[in-house]
Amino acid sequence: MRAIYYGDYNYMIRVDEQRSRRKARTRQVRRQKLILIGALITIALVLFFSIRTFAGTDPDTTDNATKTYRSVKIYCHDTVESIAEENFSTNYSTVDKMADEIRHINHLSPDEELIPGNYIVIPVYDPSGY
After folding, report:
1. Which of 70, 68, 83, 85 is CA-nearest to residue 127?
2. What is the rounded CA–CA span in Å between residue 88 and residue 79?
3. DSSP string of the chain, one letter each residue
4. Which CATH architecture is the domain 66-126 placed in?
5. Is 62 buried (19+), middle (13-18) or exposed (0-12) by CB count in 10 A?
6. What are the extents of the domains in the chain?
7. Which of 85, 61, 71 is nearest to 117 (CA)?
8. Contacts of 102 (CB under 8 A, 6+ apart)
9. What whole-number distance in Å separates Cα of residue 80 and Cα of residue 74?
10. Are 116 and 75 in contact (CB under 8 A)?
11. Per-residue model confidence as pLDDT tens for the chain (130 residues)
12. Quick check: pTM over 0.90?
């Protein structure tokens, strides 16, 4: 049965056309896969850097520092802001941000006064990372 088709010139042309269409389709699918992979990599990189930017992380300061806590005694006329100013760390952009974290750690409201003689917990960054 195959011998009949091998002698047919039109059959050979159809087979060649099918092969060329199959090769063209294979190239098209490969091209589409490469474009898709490139787009996914680009999206992943954009998301990585935008999340890092929005999180406010600075690789030079926070990645190498270990955050620990220590207790500080409260004296007369001390405020959360004055304690934050005395113990200010470059890991915070402003003294107010550090004061806000101190309030959060100690469950203090913004208008709450500190009682002299008590202790307050403050964050401390160890630059050695340990």
Report:
1. 68
2. 14
3. -HHHHHH-HHHHHHHHHHHHHHHHHHHHHHHHHHHHHHHHHHHHHHHHHHHHHHHT--TTTTSS-EEEEEEEE--TT--HHHHHHHT--TTSSSHHHHHHHHHHHTT--TTPPPPTT-EEEEEEEETT--
4. Roll (3.10)
5. middle
6. 2-55, 66-126
7. 71
8. 80, 83, 84, 108, 120, 121, 122, 123
9. 9
10. yes
11. 455 555 667 888 888 899 999 999 999 999 999 999 999 999 999 988 888 777 655 444 445 678 889 999 999 999 999 999 998 888 888 999 999 999 999 999 988 899 999 999 999 987 765 5
12. no
